[in-house]
Amino acid sequence: MHAHFKLVTHGLVAGFVSALTALSALTALTAHAQSDFSYPPKTNIEPGTVINQSNVDTFVELVDPAVYSVIAAGEVSITTGPYIAFPQHPNYVGATEQYKGQTQLGPETGDLMNYQNGRPFPEWPDINDPRAGEKVAWNMRYTYGPDESETQSLSWHYKSMKNDTTERTIEMYGALMRFSHRHSRAPMPELEQNPANLYSALYLQVQRPQDIRNTQLLTYTKKNDGDAEQAWIYLTAQRRVKRLPTGQKTDAFLGSDIMIEDFMGYNGRIRDMRWEYLGSKELLAPMYAFNALPASYKEKKDDELTVIKFEGKGGCFPSVTWQVRTVHMLKATPVNPSHPLKERIFSIDAETYVPLLTRIYDRPGNLWKLGMVAASDSSQHEAKNEDWQGLVTDGVSMVDLQARHCTTLQFRTHMPAEDLRPNMFTTQQMRAAGR
């Protein structure tokens, strides 16, 4: 079964290398990172190579363990593509250089001091630094993305891997605004009006089906990690806005396989996890040039937008090519003992600091879910995203490996022609939209 899917994590470095070789490579990567963030892999796989049940053991060092398990079971195959760099917005790169060495960790996890803009900790993570994981987490939080973006077409598909059926489809509108630490849209670096002291806000509104139309979600990410989390949901049946308690961020969102805390890799406070840097390696990940994908990997939606397909068992895996990437491995362990997870293991792209693959373990320590993000370079995407200058997410999949179920998301996200209104990210607007 051939599903050209991409995952949210990177794999293991191919082959065994001597300590001297590893040190030399690390030194070269660190020096290179100071200029443009790109990390061309040392390992090359011929583009077009199909990795499936019959040959996956040959590539085991380059395949994430959870991805390996589904390939070995014959539930999916992946096709390799060429390495391409994912350049970051020049304003983001410039800010990183300008403020390099200024950002510091405070005395407690979640305390960040003197951060202005750009990548907080651009240096290569040090495996001997006991707080290296926390620095990687902050880089993931403040990865580059457009200051304002809209997803006019966001399709959620609930799928059964047991009988290869789609059980439910929900169509949404989505919008994201960064109120501070802005790099791509005036005003920069912060909106003049930011009374809630926000870093960013995310808004979702259900458009179909009719029975839950206008159900809405609003989440805030604060500049101060110590501030209480804030999230609200508008339920159509109740016709009112409800504040979400912190514990409900780990519930299934609208009956899907995704928690609100899973959004954007991790949508919670840095201080609510213990972060451990597990080292860096080369791994196959679902990154590609959207315009170069074969037509067979894509499909037209009813509004004529072109989106990536999902294939493999249950239609749970993105139909894209995978390339060898340098990734940082990061473990997040909840501080709260009543949290439903034991840990998350992120495979974070070293160039973009986007978590492409995530392994999620339940409280007893069993592998529960596999998260995958399929992403393209914006310069090889649709024309309206030329000014994006970064990574564009085309699809997400969260696979429940225990329940044999998945939720897949198809995105068509762009930078809006007109500025988004800050007041659309308010509970007042949620009430108005729900009427």
Question: What does this entry look like structurally?
Answer:
There is one protein chain. With 435 residues, the chain is mainly beta. It has one domain (49-434): Lipoprotein localisation LolA/LolB/LppX (outer membrane lipoprotein receptor (LolB), chain A, Clam), CATH 2.50.20.10. Helices cover 12% and strands 35% of the residues. It has 5 helices and 22 strands. The strands form 4 sheets. The protein has a 16-stranded mixed β-sheet that branches. A two-stranded antiparallel sheet has the order 3-4. A two-stranded antiparallel ribbon has the order 13-14. A hairpin with a 5-residue loop joins β13 (298-300) and β14. The longest helix has 18 residues, at 19-36. The protein is globular, with a radius of gyration of 20 Å. The N and C termini lie far apart (47 Å). Residues 1-35 have low confidence and may be disordered.
CATH topology: outer membrane lipoprotein receptor (LolB), chain A
The residue ranges in which pLDDT falls below 50 over 5 or more consecutive positions are 1-35
Give the helices and strands as they follow along the chain: HEHEHEEHEEEEEEEEEEEEEEEEEEH
Question: Would you identify the CATH H-level superfamily?
Answer: Lipoprotein localisation LolA/LolB/LppX
Number of strands: 22
Mean pLDDT: 92
* Number of alpha- plus pi-helical segments: 5
The chain-level structural class is mainly beta
Q: What fraction strand?
A: 25-35%
Assembly context of the chains: single chain
Tell me which CATH architecture applies here: Clam
State the distance separating the first and last CA atoms: 47 Å
- Helix percentage range: 10-25%
Q: Write down the domain tally.
A: 1
CATH class: Mainly Beta
Per the principal axes of the C-alpha atoms, what is the gross shape?
A: globular
What composes the largest sheet?
A: 16 strands, mixed
Radius of gyration: 20 Å
